[in-house]
Amino acid sequence: MTATALDSAIFRDIFTTPEMREVFSDERRTGYYLEIEIALARAQSRLGIIPEKAAREIERQCRIENIDLARLKQQTERIGYPILGVVQQIVGLCADGLGEWCHWGATTQDITDTAAIMQIRAALELVEKDMEAIAAALAELSRRYRDTPMAGRSNLQQAVPLTFGFKTAALLAAMQRHRERLAQLRPRILVGEFGGAVGTLASLGGDGLKVQAAM
To answer: What is the DSSP letter of 42?
Structure first.
């Protein structure tokens, strides 16, 4: 049964695109979890917090094709969130007990929130690409039809004349302002999270802020 327009094969492409749905898919989100775990292991290895051998093994196993998504579904239904299930699978995949170093000093919220920001970053890239294409099309229309007259519209009726190029140029100006807003949005929104349990980084002692910066 279709619950929302996004679930409908008929309506979903009116409200979103295949590319945007893929960004927010289970596979992509889980892939971001794995990327973060790799980044954490690399950073901690460089700082001497975990063995380099462990970081290499964690990175080797942190591949989406290694994750059993059906099992992850069961694990998530049991505890309410997927991060523990992902980490448990990585730990089980790593040789010689090296997976025990995975997720060292991190907490579930660190991975969940940072992955969400990575999804937003990917989504913004798609939006920006579309906005660039729209702006380019409007710029071309404005040049081509700069002197082409048409009836203006006001209060739902025809009004004084203008040119079609002027109309598209006004739309282009608005689109350029949207692109500027998007650029300003990025540094404010694209912020990862690494605070450990209760946000204090206490489990990493004096190295917490170093790990945060390295990530």
So the answer is: H
User: 67: part of which helix (H) or strand (E)?
Assistant: none
Q: pLDDT tens for the chain, 215 residues: list them.
A: 677 888 888 998 999 999 999 999 999 999 999 999 999 999 999 999 999 999 999 999 999 999 999 999 999 999 999 999 999 999 999 999 999 999 999 999 999 999 999 999 999 999 999 999 999 999 999 999 999 999 999 999 999 999 999 999 999 999 999 999 999 999 999 999 999 999 999 999 999 999 999 99
User: Which H, E and C letters describe 117-173, residue by residue?
Assistant: HHHHHHHHHHHHHHHHHHHHHHHHHHHHCCCCEEEEEECCEEEEEEEHHHHHHHHHH
Beta strands in the chain (DSSP E): 149-154, 157-163
